């Protein structure tokens, strides 16, 4: 291959197809489109939920009805018609699986295509995977191994049936039903998701993982994840997402709640690769997600995300640093291409004393995409000696895309130390020249630079995911990652 | 009646006698319509998220003073930069004071907007420039609709104004609940140069609200230096709107020193229309009690090869609230740009608040944009070092704070003004040391 220039890269980016855009023909059990109280009841019934849960959903539905869709984000899109979405779609050959062998082979094939061969992962990584397809959890692996340690890792609907006390105590405690429009919608109609509880003092021996996939047309995916780390425990949680190629926009509105009790640590990593739409901006997933964690005394929550997919992303994984000496971290790479739009960032709310937070956000925009960082650092009057460091770097490729930074900093305590810095740049000609001079061709040079640019965040990913994140970056920015 | 409706109906009442056939009659009418549509800004709007005007916009407010009040030179002398000769355009309660002013028509025009609006020879300038850069948001529209008086500066090609121009608005407090609407128009043609000092000063402790609009047009390779001294009484509030349009190779710098006032809101917008334009905005905010200072800046980069530099320092004591909302907007044509934005803050008291939002919106790829924002305290080691050498705590702290703000002070180009601001800072920190060491 001849000289590979940035223009070539750009061209390649534009034409690079979404690799995961297949549709698996699995019989599914789908509800009629539309949303009303009956649908909410029906979902709840379908999941065999107790009465309190049904009521909780109905409360959320009533709140949602009163709310209007938010418009403040720096994205433009055709608003989804909430009456034209099916709120429940489940693979119909649903059974309780105890081992991988019992899973529908076609479904397994799907996962193989996704590159998450269960068998392989079982052998190599020892990752316990909970797979959520069209919002229903179909397989949880390694359950028994985890059970020995007292760790509960199952679908949320199972948790509602089996561990109602835990769910009742914590669901909605971090993201209440009335939190925002999409959280209210999710609270009303969530069909499944993952639940995880780590008992006191237990260090979860393996990475826990959830895979989300929207398969059926015209469905919305509303999953709910609840992770509870009891005192002095540790868990690392991974989440991955894909969807098939479709012309119409699909909606994904999830809620993730993390509860880190005294001295515990939760590491939550996401590799998001929803279908981003084709190069004309047609189709793609709307990703409107509410993620939030609460840290009690001495606890730590670390969010790491690699965002390469979705037509529109609207997502702010946040930490409420409630307890003294708690720590919040946010590491993010957001790559947008073609007509993708991303408005993402974090909120760090410092309430306790000696709380610390770190924000590292890397945005890479190419094509005609818009990439925004929106973050809030709030130091409350009680939070003495709070410390925050934020860094937001953007890399622009071409002059048709945009990079935006909206950092909000609110400080009410004199002992706080807050630093924020942001830079925007392109790949320097001098940097490429330097590499060329040393016999490194331009393609490799760009790869080096982009890789170096994202390294800080990639390093934070667990081993198993880092490989996959690399793979995803390759899809989005083929030729630039070595 | 709501204040907004009251203002609108009072506009209809005075519509005729303002300037029914003057050059800006249509502009005023359009402005009152736009005010009717937009109204006063509320906290719901993103740009006013941290600053509420609610407590200031009392229904009793009126725009037109009922009587004329005179002031004695001896009472106001201290507010002038008296150690050097300057041109002065002075207003008392919104009315021009010829007695206190020193204007000129010698090669350059330094006079009144009302005079410029009424005389035909100024017509081409008014038609070309009046209200051409001010946006039609609520507060600016209100000013456009009602403003009758302000400074008018016209500096033709290749002229350098040999002494600084002081634009001073005095408020006597003779009547309460006045909302003043001063309006300045400053046109600096190609390769011309001018230095301007603006000040709003209340002479009593009565409350006053000023909604000022200044439009500045900086021609090719022209150079404008603008200094705003905001050291007003604790009951005076100011909404200052300054809009600057820059042509090729021009340099415009605005320094804002916010030490006083109850609520101060600075809307400072730069629009760079020509290549190689350079914009500088610096500020020092030093406030206490329940004072509130909000800096809202925008640099709109439209042309390539431009630069902008922002440096705002703030020190907040007691229950003071500081807001910084800086926005750099880069159009896709504005390649090879170098934009820098910095906001450093020190909180002295537990009750003080700072809300900072340095914002970048970038559509061009070949640019160098960076911003930084810090909030912290005085360096304990440095304090200890000075205390160990016999410098009292108060003085040591003052020295550190002075050093913190020094970057901004250094760029003041009028030495007498620099000295004056040094004194103000010493006074504000209640120390005896002179800083011009």
Features:
heterodimer; A: 482 residues; alpha/beta; B: 437 residues; 2 domains; ten-stranded mixed β-sheet; 20 strands; 22% helix; globular
Q: How many beta-strand segments of chain A?
A: 25
β-strand percent of chain A reads 25-35%
Largest interface: A-B, 35 and 35 residues
Strand order of the largest sheet of chain B: 2-1-5-8-10-12-14-16-18-20
Query: How does the overall form of chain B come out from the CA principal axes?
Result: globular
Computed CA radius of gyration of chain B, to the nearest angstrom: 21 Å
What is the distance, rounded to the nearest whole angstrom, between the alpha carbons of the first and last residues of chain B?
57 Å
Q: What's the assembly state of these chains?
A: heterodimer
What percent of residues of chain A adopt helix (DSSP H or I)? 25-40%
Q: Pairing-aware structural class of the strands and helices of chain B?
A: alpha/beta
**Count of helical regions of chain A:** 12
**Cα-based radius of gyration of chain A, to the nearest Å:** 22 Å
Main sheet attributes: strand count, strand direction, barrel closure of chain A: 10 strands, mixed
Beta-strand residue fraction of chain B: 35-45%
Quote the average pLDDT of chain B. 89
Topology:
The complex is a heterodimer of chains A (482) and B (437).
Chain A: H1 6-15, E1 28-30, H2 37-46, H3 51-66, E2 89-91, H4 105-113, H5 118-124, E3 128-133, E4 136-140, H6 143-148, E5 152-155, H7 156-162, H8 164-170, H9 181-189, E6 194-198, E7 208-213, E8 220-221, E9 224-229, E10 234-242, E11 249-252, E12 255-260, E13 265-273, E14 284-295, E15 300-307, E16 312-315, E17 318-321, E18 327-336, E19 341-344, E20 347-350, E21 356-365, E22 370-379, E23 387-396, E24 402-411, E25 417-425, H10 429-437, H11 442-458, H12 463-476
Helix pairs in contact in A: 2-3, 3-9, 7-8, 10-11
Chain B: H1 3-19, H2 25-38, H3 73-76, E1 87-92, E2 95-96, E3 109-112, H4 113-118, H5 123-129, H6 138-146, E4 151-155, E5 165-171, E6 178-180, E7 183-188, E8 193-202, E9 208-218, E10 223-230, E11 236-246, E12 251-258, E13 263-272, E14 278-287, E15 292-301, E16 307-316, E17 321-330, E18 337-347, E19 353-362, E20 367-376, H7 380-388, H8 393-410, H9 415-428
Parallel strand pairs in B: 1-5, 4-7, 5-8, 6-9, 7-9, 8-10, 9-11, 10-12, 11-13, 12-14, 13-15, 14-16, 15-17, 16-18, 17-19, 18-20
Antiparallel strand pairs in B: 1-2, 3-4
Helix pairs in contact in B: 1-2, 2-6, 7-8, 8-9
């Amino acid at each position: 291959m001849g000289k590979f220039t940035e223009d070539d890269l750009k061209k390649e980016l534009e034409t690079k197809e979404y690799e995961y855009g297949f549709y698996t023909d699995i019989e599914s059990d789908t509800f009629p489109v539309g949303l009303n109280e009956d649908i909410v009841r029906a979902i709840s019934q379908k999941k065999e939920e107790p009465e309190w849960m049904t009521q909780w959903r109905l409360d959320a539905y009533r709140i949602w009805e009163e709310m209007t869709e938010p418009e403040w984000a720096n994205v433009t899109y055709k608003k989804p018609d909430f009456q034209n979405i099916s709120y429940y779609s489940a693979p119909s050959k649903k059974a309780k699986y105890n081992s991988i062998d019992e899973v529908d082979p076609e479904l397994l094939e799907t996962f193989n295509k996704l590159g998450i061969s269960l068998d392989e992962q079982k052998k190599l990584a020892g990752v316990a995977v909970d797979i959520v397809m069209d919002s229903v959890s179909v397989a949880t692996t390694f359950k028994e191994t985890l059970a020995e340690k007292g760790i509960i890792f199952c679908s949320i609907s199972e948790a509602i049936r089996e561990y109602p006390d835990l769910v009742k105590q914590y669901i909605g405690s971090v993201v209440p039903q009335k939190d925002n429009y999409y959280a209210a919608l999710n609270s009303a109609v969530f069909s499944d998701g993952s639940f995880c509880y780590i008992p006191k003092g237990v260090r979860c021996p393996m990475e826990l993982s959830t895979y989300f996939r929207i398969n059926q047309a015209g469905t919305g995916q509303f999953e709910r994840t609840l992770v509870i780390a009891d005192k002095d425990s540790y868990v690392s949680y991974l989440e991955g997402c894909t969807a098939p190629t479709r012309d119409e926009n699909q909606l994904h509105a999830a809620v993730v709640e993390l509860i880190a009790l005294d001295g515990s640590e939760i590491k939550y990593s996401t590799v998001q690769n929803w279908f981003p739409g084709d190069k004309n901006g047609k189709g793609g997933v709307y990703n409107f997600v509410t993620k939030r964690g609460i840290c009690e005394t001495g606890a730590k929550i670390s969010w790491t995300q690699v965002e390469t997919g979705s037509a529109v992303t609207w997502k702010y994984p946040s930490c409420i640093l409630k307890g003294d000496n708690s720590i919040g971290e946010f590491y993010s790479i957001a790559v947008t291409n073609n007509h993708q739009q991303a408005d993402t960032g974090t909120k760090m709310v410092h309430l306790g004393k000696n709380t610390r937070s770190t924000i590292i956000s890397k945005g890479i925009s190419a094509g005609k995409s818009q990439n925004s960082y929106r973050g809030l650092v709030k130091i409350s009057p009680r939070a003495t000696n709070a410390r925050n460091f934020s860094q937001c770097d953007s890399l622009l490729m071409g002059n048709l895309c945009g990079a935006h930074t909206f950092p909000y900093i609110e400080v009410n305590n004199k002992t706080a130390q807050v630093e924020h810095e942001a830079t925007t740049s392109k790949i320097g000609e001098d940097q490429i020249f330097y590499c060329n001079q040393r016999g490194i061709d331009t393609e490799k040079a760009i790869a080096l630079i982009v890789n170096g640019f994202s390294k800080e965040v990639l390093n934070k990913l667990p081993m198993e995911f880092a490989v996959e994140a690399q793979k995803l970056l390759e899809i989005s920015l083929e030729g630039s990652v070595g | 009646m709501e204040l907004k409706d009251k203002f609108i109906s009072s506009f209809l009442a005075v519509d005729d006698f303002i300037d029914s056939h003057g050059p800006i009659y249509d502009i005023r009418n359009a402005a009152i319509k736009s005010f009717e549509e937009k109204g006063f800004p509320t906290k719901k709007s993103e740009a006013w998220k941290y600053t509420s005007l609610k407590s200031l916009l009392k229904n009793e407010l009126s725009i037109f003073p009922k009587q004329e009040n005179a002031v004695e030179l001896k009472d106001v002398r201290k507010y002038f930069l008296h150690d050097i000769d300057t041109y002065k355009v002075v207003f008392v309660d919104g009315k021009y004071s010829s007695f206190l002013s020193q204007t000129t028509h010698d090669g350059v025009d330094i006079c009144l907007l009302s005079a410029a609006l009424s005389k035909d020879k100024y017509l081409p300038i008014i038609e070309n420039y009046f209200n051409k850069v001010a946006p039609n948001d609520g507060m600016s529209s209100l000013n456009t609709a009602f403003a009758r008086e302000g400074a008018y500066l016209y500096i033709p090609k290749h002229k350098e104004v040999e002494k600084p121009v002081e634009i001073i608005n005095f408020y006597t407090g003779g009547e309460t609940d006045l909302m003043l609407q001063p309006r300045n128009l400053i046109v600096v043609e190609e390769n011309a140069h001018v230095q301007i000092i603006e000040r709003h000063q209340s002479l009593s402790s009565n409350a006053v609200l000023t909604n000022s609009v200044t439009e500045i047009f900086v021609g090719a390779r022209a150079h404008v230096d603008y200094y705003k001294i905001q050291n007003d009484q604790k009951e005076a509030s100011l909404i200052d709107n300054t809009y600057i349009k820059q042509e090729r190779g021009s340099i415009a710098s605005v320094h804002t020193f916010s030490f006083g006032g109850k609520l101060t809101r600075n809307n400072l917008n730069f629009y760079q229309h020509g290549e190689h334009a350079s914009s500088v905005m610096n500020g020092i905010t030093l406030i206490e009690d329940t004072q509130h200072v909000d800096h809202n800046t925008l640099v709109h980069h439209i042309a390539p090869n431009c630069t902008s530099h922002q440096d705002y320092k703030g020190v907040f004591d007691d229950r003071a609230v500081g807001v910084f909302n800086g926005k750099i907007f880069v159009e896709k044509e504005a390649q090879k740009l170098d934009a820098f934005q910095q906001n450093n803050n020190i909180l002295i008291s537990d009750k003080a608040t700072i809300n900072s939002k340095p914002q970048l919106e970038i559509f061009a790829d070949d640019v160098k944009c960076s911003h930084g924002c810090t909030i912290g305290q005085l360096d304990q080691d440095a304090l200890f070092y000075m205390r160990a050498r016999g410098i009292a705590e108060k003085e040591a702290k003052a020295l550190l704070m002075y050093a913190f703000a020094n970057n901004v002070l250094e760029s003041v180009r009028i030495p007498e003004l620099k000295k004056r601001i040094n004194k103000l800072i010493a006074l504000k920190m209640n120390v005896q040391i002179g800083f011009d060491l």
